[in-house]
Amino acid sequence: MIKELLKNNKLFKGVEDNILDEIVRNTDIIDFEKGKTIIWKGEETTDLYIILKGKVNVITFDEKGNELIVATFSKGDFVGELSLIDGKPRSMSVETLTDTQVAVIKRNFFLKLMKKYPQLCLQLSKNLVERIRKTDEILESLAFLDVKRRIVKYIKDYGIFEDKKVYKIKKLSHSELAKRIGSSREAVSKAIKSLSEKGIIEERDNCFILKANSIYEE
Asked: What's the whole-model pTM score?
């Protein structure tokens, strides 16, 4: 069962059965309830966590407690790869959005495994590049887009494009949306109100709906 779940993981895509067998023999399975912290920012742990089921948020925060949700991962993803590679403290926290099950792989074992099976290095590198590109997009958004434009971009990036007319995404609380675009709840509430008054965004059927041909202008 665990082997099949690992086989479908992005990190182990195309990896031979004998490698997967060795990984399974050296893997611990841990269950976390919804709302639990798997990894704390700054802690000195270096394990790799493979998500077998459930969903997690990767979060960073400042000294005042303001949060930014950097990514959301689910079954088939993994977290903790940076500390796995360099052995340094965690750069971000990871919290469960649902009841979650993970496979935990120790750093020393995984590093030996990569030396033994170089294809794992390539797989890890591909996934790291993908995540770096997404992080670059977040930085660009924070640097160059105001709150209204960030909201529009978020809906386009994560919404479902329906009938070539609208982008539709499940409605988030203004506080949750603020954490995802790097803003405050107050600023998001003000921006949503303005976008709604301009007819750019509708709140209907527990969703945010953005017209595909909407162009936001100050």
From this structure: 0.82
